[in-house]
Amino acid sequence: MVKKKSYGFKTPVRRITKNVTGHKVGGELTGGECELINTQLLELNETQIHKFELIPESAVGLFNSNVGIVAIGGYFICEADIRIKLSITVNKELSEITYDIEKNRFYSIGHDFEIDLEEKIENISVAIEFIVTNKTKIEYSHFSYGFVDKLEYRENEEAYKHYANSKKTICFPEQFYFTKQYIIENSIVGNPIMSKSCNRCQRYLPINPFNQRIQLAFSNHCTTKAPCTHKNFSNYRITKSEFENSEIENIVTNNFENGYSLDPNGNIISYYGHQLECKACKKFFVNAALNHLRTSSQHREDSLRRRAFELLSRKLLGIKWIYHEFRIKTGKEFDKEIWLKFNKKCFNCNNDIKSAKVMHLDHTMPLSHLYPLDETATCLCATCNNAKSDIFPVDFYTEEKLISLSKYTGLPLELLKSRKANQKVIDLLKNKIIWFVEDFLNHPDYVRVRDGKKAADSILNSVNKAISKSDTKFDVLEEYTKLKS
Questions:
Q1: What's the pLDDT band for 358 if we cut at 50, 70, 90?
Q2: Distance in angstroms (rounded) separating the CA atoms of residues 462 and 306
Q3: Model confidence, pTM
Q4: Is there a smaller number of Cβ atoms within 10 Å at the N or the C end of the chain?
Q5: What is the DSSP string of 123-167?
């Protein structure tokens, strides 16, 4: 058998720290277990407020300081659009956040508030308000509130900047690390959902039974290269069920989306798979803060790959960086125009965005599939942009939202409903394979070895994944070999 040429792009040294986090798993749960449970259900005829008092003396100092954190959150889905307001009151100071919940879509929501434990605190309360205009039902799971008391937070000052950064809401309510769940007054038993184990914090937390790509407590493992074939990430052994064995097949088949199935052993199979760690543990114990073996090179890897995708798409399409090009063409600032186009609101949650500077520009069609940033960008808030990530619009928005998005962006509804890579860029790439391999991937930033790994490897792998989602499937290096022979 002839050895396949690598052309210098397959890293000769395995980066050991990629698979070493500096922290062992938390116990017996491996991340490959699940529980089938029922939600709790509330029937709402009018707006309701549920208030809960806390004992100030129970607050715990975190981050080697006198900072305490009180929080509230959970996972919610409703049959009609409603608004949920979470509020925290310390003495007479009120802090609140509002979530616009669209019907038939599962949401992770939460709110927290820092308190100075050196000051006298006489009373603390949290509240959840369901603001409804018509009779509806809302289901929820893992609803919790109280003081954050994660042991690893207590003496780690470094963890604070990661806990409190501008993107923190993407890990709400997981990063509160609550273990006790509460039932809201007048709740009744709801419908089946699934919770999966985290191999670090050893909690069972929800995964979305109705749309795996709209993630709850766990990020997907395989997206571009689905179905996930990594057993522990996609095969979940049922360790607890609130249902008879004879009911489980019907629940998975008829209650959950068709991305879930049962294998012959009775394990639940996930099409996209999920990470072994919940979002909070991934953030603190794998990627940053509490992982002392995480390197700066590893932190740079994703951002370098994203910049490479943006540059590659633009070079192939023969267009310049959108900010410069838009300014020359219109005499206006690109980001401000997008902000104004979307009426200064987040397209997804409809919350006000104070200025173009705090707006997050979403590519609409994902950059990971070679769609560069252009006039079809979407105005999102930080929370919604983080939640959308590299998800195709069809997997993130409702039908009504997609129709509206088509009007805002000018993109055809057919494209917004697709899950295909940018065919125009891929066709251009195929015609310039030699340039891509010999010139583009040989940029000094891409071939430089960092922790035994080259960015060129990662870029090449990601490009091949995007190509696999196109109408023209080919392997870059195989195509390059044909052209050079």
A1: confident
A2: 10
A3: 0.77
A4: N
A5: -EEEEEEEE-SS-EEEEEEEEEEEE---HHHHT-SHHHHHHSSTT
Q: What is the DSSP string of 362-426?
A: E-SS-GGGT----TT-EEE-HHHHHHHTT--HHHHS-HHHHHHHHHHH---HHHHT-----HHHH
- Give the HSE-up count for residue 202: Cα atoms under 13 Å, Cβ half-sphere: 7
Separation CA 439–CA 282 (nearest Å): 35
Cis preceding-peptide flag for 173 (omega within 30 of 0): yes
Can you tell me the mean pLDDT for 444-448?
85
Provide the 10 A C-beta neighbour count for residue 419: 16
Task: Give the list of residues 6+ apart from residue 12 with CB closer than 8 angstroms, or none.
Answer: none
Confidence of residue 23 (pLDDT cuts 50, 70, 90): very low
Q: Provide the pairing of β-strand 136-147 with 33-44.
A: antiparallel
Please tell me the distance from the alpha carbon of residue 260 to that of residue 433, in angstroms, as a whole number. 38
Looking at residue 25, what is its pLDDT?
60
Between the alpha carbon of residue 93 and those of residues 98, 126, 357, 468, the distances in Å are 17, 12, 28, 54
Q: Is the pLDDT of residue 16 over 60?
A: no
Structural contact between residues 42 and 310, judged by C-beta atoms closer than 8 angstroms: no
For residues 392 and 378, give the distance between their C-alpha atoms in angstroms, rounded to a whole number.
13
Nearest partner of 83 among 96, 69, 92, 70, judged by Cα = 96
- DSSP H helical ranges for 170-274: 231-234, 245-250
Q: What is the pLDDT of residue 156?
A: 83
pLDDT, position 292: 52
Question: Of 94, 90, 128, 95, whose CA–CA distance to 109 is shortest?
Answer: 128
pLDDT at 297: 52
Under 8 Å between Cβ of 356 and 350: no
Q: Taking the alpha carbons of 396, 179, 271, 430 in that order, is the dihedral positive or negative? A: positive
Whether the predicted pLDDT of 162 surpasses 90: no
481: amino acid identity, one letter: T
CA quadruple 170, 17, 160, 151: dihedral positive or negative? positive
Which 3 state secondary structure label does DSSP give 93?
Answer: strand
